[in-house]
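To start, one record:
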Amino acid sequence: MKGIALSTLAYIILAIISIMVILLLLGNKIYPSIQDTYCKILIGVKSILPLPEHMKTDSPMFCIKEEKKQVTTKEIYSGDPDRIAFEIASYVLACWEEASKVNENTLCYEIILKSLNGTITENMVRDKLKDYSYIMKWNVGDIQTTKSIGIFYNAEENIVEVY
């Protein structure tokens, strides 16, 4: 009786491992209609496995949008307009690098300016971006008071909008 139970358990474990290997090998070649289901299963399996983060495999690019649904909020405490322009440019570039891989409209960051001693202009941020200034569309005008701004990736135009 125990021998049958152990062999049955071994077959079940072997079947589960085989299905996981097949899904991992064919993961990038599945139809778009089942990609969402595949991503949810993959995320669930990755969260259940007792492995450290560095041992878990990377998700396919089409699954990244499922994993990263929440907007990241960043607070900037510096009152120096030059420093704030540098940080905004950094977040614009980070948004463009991450979201352009997925190629889907994405709200990347909400930036809360806690203090401001001066004015932040579009040109200040563009100067910090240097060779990458073409990726940004500035929709906020001059920033003269503390406020919250959003950084949004527009997939149709392949640019990052600051509003």
Summary: Residues 46 and 57 are 8 Å apart (CA to CA). The beta strands are 72-76, 106-113, 136-138, 148-154, 159-162. The longest strand covers residues 106-113. DSSP finds five helices and five strands in the chain.
